[in-house]
Amino acid sequence: MLELIDWSKFLQVLEATIFFAVGVVGLFSLGIRLLTNAQHSVPGANKGKSAAVRAEVLNRLGAYVAFGLCLVALGYGIMLVAPWIFGLETK
Amino acid sequence: MDPIFVVSVVVALALFFDFTNGFHDTANAMATPIATGALKPRVAVAIAAVMNLIGAFLSTEVAKAISVSLINDDAQKTLFVGVVGAQMVFAGLTGAILWNLTTWFLGLPSSSSHALFGGLIGAAIAYAGTDAINGAKVLEKVVFPALFAPLIAGLAAFLATRVAFLVTARTQESRSKSGIGTGRGKFRAGQIFSSSLVALSHGTNDAQKTMGVITLVLVAAGIQSDGGHVELWVILTSALAIAIGTYSGGWRIIKTMGTGLSQIKPAQGFAAEVSTGVAILASSKLGFALSTTQVASGSVIGAGLGRKGGAVRWGKAGQIVVGWLFTLPAAGIVGALSAFLVKLGPVGFATDAIITVAAIIAIFQISKRNKVAHHNVTSEVEGASEVVASPRQVKRAAEKAARAAKKAAQKGKN
User: Fold this and answer.
1) Is residue A52, in this structure, part of any structural domain at all?
2) What's the ipTM?
């Protein structure tokens, strides 16, 4: 009976879960680290120190890119489950 | 007996089952964000209800797996035709409801999904022997996902928690020098999205189990030609039933939340929810019908272990696993007993229906009389969190053991 089971599907669930979960959590954590850096550069940036301004902008930008990528990953996951939402396949 | 009457009773019972499923599982999605303070309870419950509603519309793979795969093709076409097929589904469903209510009353860990599959499988075997069951499909779509999905989600949550703590880590020296903290409290904002993802995935898997059962009975009664698609009204009513159940179940959380999961940090909550959501969505995509409670529990345990210094309380873990393994065969036996009763004819059918309705009313009355307190409504996900001892608890236990050893040594000297 066991030979009738498509084991590759379980491997797919394992790969997808670990890849997406670790990827999204890793990206979100990176975003948090960069945003925290940016928030602490603000006092210097307010005083017009150019290095602090640059650091604040770069950290904040990096953080938003990381958060944005999390949303893209989420959208991609939903597209895989329900492609019809994105007009890719009729239900 | 009129098949339309039996079908109507089955549809009503299936929707009631769906309602209780949502009622029971609100905590799966919203336990951790409420515990960490990421969401206010009322907001969390409303988000869970809406997300469940949306999720139920996303995919129908699990519903198809139930309506097409569990019962053997030949048995579906020859044995379970007309009123007999509808009665078999009725017996399975009442078996599942009775088992669910009993375990809820006795406070035993259980799974609504496994109770449903167990009940249906038991009833089909009682009607037509083991040949009626598509053994390979039951293993592939139900039994193995039940075993693997919590482990996969737990492993993913463990790794994700490790990554979250690693990426946001700052040494004590750099923290005191720069005055910058780890910023891990910001994971609370992420939990709003991650818990919504769990509620959405819950709708894609659990609402479909009801859709699958209703489709199964519609095909058996000849109202629908095949189980390869799900009627729109079935999707709509199942989605609404689970959403209303989720919203109604929220009051229990509002009154009781916040003790069991107090050791969970926002970073762990976020990692656990993302892992749960992704594991359920990936499984729904492939038509695996799993217990969402078990997957959420696996993730909470994995996230607990992912934090440095966490330890497993093997006794508690053992209790939970035994509860998980026990549900399917136990519900199968209750489903088979219901089937033997229904096979007796209209009197048996009526008796089974009366027992089920009486049990529902009795449990409802008892739950109304009992004061809602943490001990009688603790979610299983909260129970799972107790499997892992936090670093603080491990330290306290070690200190206690050292004190006891010192005392014993002093006594020995004296």
Assistant:
1) yes
2) 0.89
